[in-house]
Amino acid sequence: MKRRAIVVVLDGLRRDMVGPEATPELHRFGAVATRFAAHRSVFPSATRVVSACFATGTLPAQHGLQGNSVALMEGSTLVPHDVGRPDFMDHWRAVRGHTFAVPTMAERLARAGLEAMVFNNVSPGAARAHDPDGHGWIFNRACSFAPTLRRLGAGEDIADVTLDTKGDRLLTTYFLDRALAGHEAALGVLWFGEPDHSQHENILGSPAAMAAIAGADACFGAVRRAVDARRAAGQEDILLIACSDHGHQTVDEVIDIDAAFVAAGLKAAGDPSLLAVSNGTSALIYLHPDRNEDAAAVLAFLRSCSWAGSVLEGDALAAVGQVPVDSLLCAIAMRSDDRPNEFGVPGMSAAAKPFAGKPDRLGCGQHGGLGAWEQMPFLMIEGDGFRQAALSDEPTSVIDLAPTILGHLGISAEGCEGQPMQQRRVVTAGHQG
User: Fold this and answer.
1) How far is residue 394 CA from its own chain's centroid?
2) Which pTM does this prediction carry?
3) Contact at 8 Å (CB) between 419 and 12?
4) Which helix (H) or strand (E) holds 26?
5) Which of 15, 132, 144, 160 yields a CA-CA distance of 20 to 30 A from 138?
């Protein structure tokens, strides 16, 4: 019997938002799947770096992509970059000679003569983070690639997909026709743009945000029915995973960290030797090697700021899966608490002001830090090795998905930091409440 893995990601959906009214399809799926009650994101809890962690089964310290936005040393200058750009992976390879320091699932599958296909409706950079070197298929509205990084043209690409619920529905149709059927990929990943997109632009819990959740849930239902139909035909052993990459919290304050450095006399305006690179409700702080003697002063200043919930350096940086390489001095998890917004959704955070004219999103959803609610993605798995209608309270993370998928497909997961989730301890069995 052919073994396959299908992963459906509802970007940005918090675990506490999954229920019979908001997400009836996921609720029904939870009645037959194993649910993971202690599932967490990574740091930064942001889609591009989460995608890299998902693809490799490792944390940023191992695979090398530090965040959704990063700074690179180019010549003798620190240059900030948005990882979401279509060309970021190519530029990253040109600057340092390679992309990830470890293999992706797409690469491992290609070595075994199998195919991975990723259909993705978030940023093109996040899509490419699944397979930056062209071992499988990547489909995104901005750029699509066949193996060997052959750029797909009109009729092969998915350029007509839009970043909204309508676009996710069309993406689902493409996925079912080309990945579940069509090529019958050993690994098929369907990554929706919603509800993340709408939660960034609306108040969490608002009618618009809840409608986006409902739309993504309906798309998952279509995938589940198609998977069940193929299972019923008796030729395929399909592992079905439904999950999110992170949660969201409400932004109640936006901080321009670079401006704060200037005001504190730590840098001149426009000086690239000290950079605060926003990752939503977190920031990566880069210091040029020529200024290493200023590290203590920068750290002391950050620790004095009320908006810096945690200043992560040394052992604390290692504890969140990062290392101080490539001029990374430290990271900041912005201030966070459990206060509710006007729709009763708990979780407030300060956010770091984004660069390049991106919106501040004050009052709307954001993520990237270590707040309880942004670190609350959901995870449900149905298939061989997973008990039906069960709840596991063992801590799990996105890096555990790669070894779980590879194990199901009979492929070695050597080098993954995560651990397979088959046969994890469960504390309850029966329909979810």
Assistant:
1) 21
2) 0.96
3) no
4) helix 24-30
5) 15
| C-alpha to C-alpha distances, 380 to 28, 29, 316, nearest whole angstrom | 11, 8, 30
* H/E element, 302: helix 295-303
In the chain, where does the domain assigned CATH 3.40.720.10 lie? Answer: 2-65+100-247+375-429
Residues 6+ away with beta carbon under 8 Å from 167: 121, 141, 161, 193
Q: What does the alpha-carbon distance between residue 40 and residue 102 come to, in Å, rounded to a whole number?
A: 22
- Is the CATH number 3.40.720.10 carried by domain 2-65+100-247+375-429? yes
Q: Could you tell me the fold of the domain covering 250-365? A: Gyrase A; domain 2 (3.30.1360)
Token pair for 141: 């509205």
State the Cα–Cα distance between residues 412 and 112, nearest whole angstrom: 10
Render each residue's pLDDT in the chain as its tens digit; 433 residues. 899 999 999 999 999 999 999 999 999 999 999 999 999 999 999 999 999 999 999 999 999 999 999 999 999 999 999 999 999 999 999 999 999 999 999 999 999 999 999 999 999 999 999 999 999 999 999 999 999 999 999 999 999 999 999 999 999 999 999 999 999 999 999 999 999 999 999 999 999 999 999 999 999 999 999 999 999 999 899 999 999 999 999 999 999 999 999 999 999 999 999 999 999 999 999 999 999 999 999 999 999 999 999 999 999 999 999 999 999 999 999 999 999 999 999 999 999 999 766 667 899 999 999 999 999 999 999 999 999 999 999 999 999 999 999 999 999 999 999 999 997 888 776 544 3
- State how far the Cα of 297 lies from the Cα of 97, in Å rounded to an integer: 33
* Peptide bond connecting 420 to the previous residue in cis, omega within 30 degrees of 0: no
Helix (H, G, I), strand (E, B) or coil at 338: strand
